[in-house]
C-alpha cells in the first residue's frame, strides 16, 4: 500500500496523513498493531471514497469479537457534526447493534491549550514568511 511508506507526496496526501497520524497515536499509547485499524468516514452518496468505510469496518470488527472500541478522528482538529453525530452517535449504534459493547470517541484537539499554542506559532511563522518586512525591527505593544 503506497500510503503506508514514505514518499515526498505524502505531505499533501490525505489518506497517507490519516494513516501516519493514527500510527503515531497508537505507537505513543503502546497499542499493538493487531489491535488497531483505520477506516474512513465522509462518504457522500454513491461516489467512491477512501476505504475501508467506517460503516462497514465497525460491524465487521464487532462480528470478529471486538467488544470495546476507542475511535480517533485524526483528520479533524475540532469536533463537528461528522465527529460528534456520525461517529459519536451513529457509529456507536452501528457497532453495538453488530455485537460490540462500547465505542468511545476521543475528542478532537478543540480548544486544548497546547493546540492553541501550536496554532499561534504556526500562524506567526506563516505571517513572518508572508510579510518579512513588517516583522523586522518592529516593536511590540502591550495593551494592559
TrEMBL record:
InterPro entries: Ferrochelatase (IPR001015), Ferrochelatase_C (IPR033644). GO terms for molecular function: ferrochelatase activity. One of its GO terms (biological process) is heme biosynthetic process. Keywords: Heme biosynthesis, Iron, Lyase, Porphyrin biosynthesis. Gene3D superfamilies: 3.40.50.1400. This is Coproporphyrin ferrochelatase. The lineage of its organism: unclassified sequences, metagenomes, ecological metagenomes.
Amino acid at each position: 500500500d503506497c500510503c503506508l511508506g514514505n514518499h515526498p507526496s505524502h505531505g499533501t496526501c490525505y489518506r497517507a496523513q490519516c494513516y501516519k497520524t493514527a500510527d503515531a497515536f497508537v505507537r505513543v499509547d503502546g497499542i499493538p498493531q493487531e489491535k488497531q485499524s483505520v477506516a474512513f468516514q465522509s462518504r457522500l452518496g454513491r461516489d467512491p471514497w477512501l476505504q475501508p468505510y467506517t460503516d462497514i469496518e465497525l460491524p465487521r470488527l464487532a462480528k470478529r469479537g471486538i467488544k470495546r472500541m476507542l475511535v480517533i478522528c485524526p483528520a479533524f482538529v475540532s469536533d463537528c457534526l461528522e465527529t460528534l453525530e456520525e461517529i459519536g452517535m451513529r457509529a456507536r449504534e452501528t457497532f453495538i447493534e453488530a455485537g460490540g459493547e462500547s465505542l468511545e470517541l476521543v475528542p478532537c484537539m478543540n480548544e486544548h491549550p497546547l493546540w492553541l499554542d501550536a496554532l499561534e506559532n504556526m500562524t506567526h511563522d506563516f505571517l513572518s514568511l508572508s510579510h518579512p518586512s513588517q516583522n523586522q525591527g518592529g516593536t511590540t505593544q502591550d495593551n494592559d
